[in-house]
Design a protein that fits this description.
- The structure is a single chain.
- The protein is mostly helical.
- The protein has 5 helices and 4 strands; from the N terminus they run ββαααβααβ.
- The chain has one domain: Hypothetical Protein Ta1238, Chain: A (Up-down Bundle), CATH 1.20.1200.10.
- A two-stranded antiparallel ribbon has the order 1-2.
- α3 packs parallel to α5 and α4 packs antiparallel against α5.
- The protein is elongated and about 50 Å long.
- One of its GO terms (cellular component) is cytoplasm.
Length: 190
């Protein structure tokens, strides 16, 4: 259980922070950059939810919860020591990736195939989902970068890869099932 009765601690005033295992690292470390950008992705989803309702809002809420799981996963290094931990670390699992894939497939059934790239825009919800997509892509790039120097749960990287795809398809759904997509016209302003 999390109890936060004092928000500031002053422990990071010199530019370091604690990871989930208690180790202290620089606030600009690769690991902190990765899970910090996952947090930023979650905040952009909060903005998107201002324009969502029904099943779309429920799906975005599920994803926001998953992103907290993902942040918890990324802030806990040394997966090989998970079995020794006093409390088992929270890790993203394949079923969370599978759920995203199933939802992408279900949404995509309602859409006609694209014959052009689309510009981020259209409805307010679609525009916010495109922002979520680009921020989640950055979180993925940073997680891949981290995985090149430290151990990272492979399911976490898969989740971020599927998440940006989910956001792209959901943005099309939010644009009247693709009818209000803003199409890219190559060289239109030459």
């Amino acid at each position: 259980m999390v109890v936060l009765n004092k928000i500031y601690t002053r422990t990071g005033d010199k530019g370091d922070t604690a990871l989930g295992n208690g180790d202290r690292v620089a606030k600009n470390s690769a690991r902190v950059n990765a899970y910090g950008t996952v947090d930023e992705t979650n905040a952009t989803l909060g903005l998107a939810r201002l324009h969502a309702d029904g099943e779309m809002d429920a799906a975005l809420e599920r994803i926001q919860n998953d992103l907290f799981d993902l942040g918890a996963d990324l802030c806990r290094p040394e997966m090989e020591k998970d079995a020794e931990a006093e409390y088992p670390p929270l890790r993203i699992v394949q079923s969370q990736v599978d759920r995203l894939e199933a939802e992408i497939d279900a949404m995509n059934k309602t859409l006609t195939p694209l014959r052009s790239f689309i510009l981020p825009g259209g409805s307010p919800l679609a525009t916010h989902l495109h922002l979520c997509r680009t921020v989640s892509r950055r979180a993925e790039r940073l997680s891949v970068e981290l995985a090149q120097i430290e151990t990272v749960n492979p399911a976490a990287v898969k989740y971020l890869n599927r998440l940006s795809d989910w956001m792209f398809v959901a943005a099309r759904v939010a644009n009247d099932n693709g009818l209000a997509d803003v199409l890219w016209v190559p060289g239109a302003n030459r």
